[in-house]
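name: query_chain
kind: protein
chains: 1
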Amino acid sequence: MNKNIYFLSDAHLGSLAIPHPRMQERRLVRFLDSIKDKAAAVYLLGDIFDFWNEYKYVVPKGFTRLLGKISELTDNGVEVHFFTGNHDLWTYGYLEEECGMIVHHQPLTTELYGKVFFLAHGDGLGDPDVKYRILRRIFHNKGCQRLLNAIHPRWGMALGLNWAKHSRLKRADGKEEPYMGEDKEWLVQFTKHYMSTHPNIDYFLYGHRHIELDLTLSDETHKARMLILGDWIWQFSYAVWDGEHLNMEEYVEGESEF
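structure:
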């Protein structure tokens, strides 16, 4: 019997705009603890941290409960895959060396129990916003990353966390815009275009948008399911794949079915 494979994203741990940070981290840790004996792998699809930047001899303060639990999972043979998002892309080896995670800086196409999955955080995929695309290019530029790391951590971390806080507070109630429909959701448009040239993919899974979405998309050659995983700020949602069924769930303390 197959062990389960879990997918979740967008906890934004450490955010200065989230009013319940300690409860939020503990809830994620309790979820991971509840699945540790049932999991073959856990895929964290980006923005687990609201801002994460590793300096040569310094890593961000906090998150010890989460990093300890992930280390326990990897020590016991559970694969934990960490996808960099647009908030936590500045990772340079600590998560792999100290916690045993497998870090992905690009989307991944992989076969899981006989089905092909396309996995990505989702930022930059089909988004037509020119300003954001320029900003994203700056964030990923190696020279700009070295400049950031030349700033003392006291100021570099404050800069990143306050930038992220300002970005979140620009939204109503700090939440994302609701689902806009297939014609306006750029991840849906990207997926439709991508599946037209990659007919072997069965499932597309994303984070980034902070909405729960489960769509079946089809074209002339095949159909595929696309999931956006919600978040671990308000929804505490995740997907689970057992080799036969892919389900979207929300974690309720003590009531997780899978």
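note: The chain has seven helices and eleven strands.
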